[in-house]
Amino acid sequence: MRGRTRDRVRVRMSKWDGTPHWAFDAVVLGDDEHGTWLGTPAGTRFARPGAAYEQAAARVHLVGDAWCLPSFCSPGAPMAVYVDVSTPPDLDGGLLEAIDLDLDVVRGWTGRTWVDDEDEFAAHRVSQGYPPAVVDAALTSSEQVLAAVRAGLPPYDGTARSWLARVQAG
């Protein structure tokens, strides 16, 4: 999974049925005990069919082996932490792929933390036929991540600040 620092990575998320979801370009910042850190500076374009935006503030994304893809945002972003519950991300060379499983754990700037898109998960688990093992993994991941974010456990303990500083420094 480890990439060379400053290598470019295309992040491509999809839905369970293969529908393209968010895609964006990132750069490898480095590795630590939590995984591989990717950076996206302010102005990075995020796009999916029917929607696109340029992110307002820098973010770092943590690629580990868990059923999630955490993002940590710098001030100016609408949230401080945004964790996509997904299949374990697969980083192979210049491409990262994962299947977005709808649930998101979000921490706002005031510290409020919640699970978002539970209604979308409930609908898609039926309409897209999520296997029971995937449903269980997604629900377990969202519960574990929610608890870790609320408790400020690593990597949700400020670890991302030094990685964000690298993105902001260019």
Automatic annotation (TrEMBL):
<dbReference type="Pfam" id="PF04167">
    <property type="entry name" value="DUF402"/>
</dbReference>
<protein>
    <recommendedName>
        <fullName>DUF402 domain-containing protein</fullName>
    </recommendedName>
</protein>
<dbReference type="InterPro" id="IPR007295">
    <property type="entry name" value="DUF402"/>
</dbReference>
<dbReference type="InterPro" id="IPR035930">
    <property type="entry name" value="FomD-like_sf"/>
</dbReference>
<feature type="domain" description="DUF402">
    <location>
        <begin position="64"/>
        <end position="152"/>
    </location>
</feature>
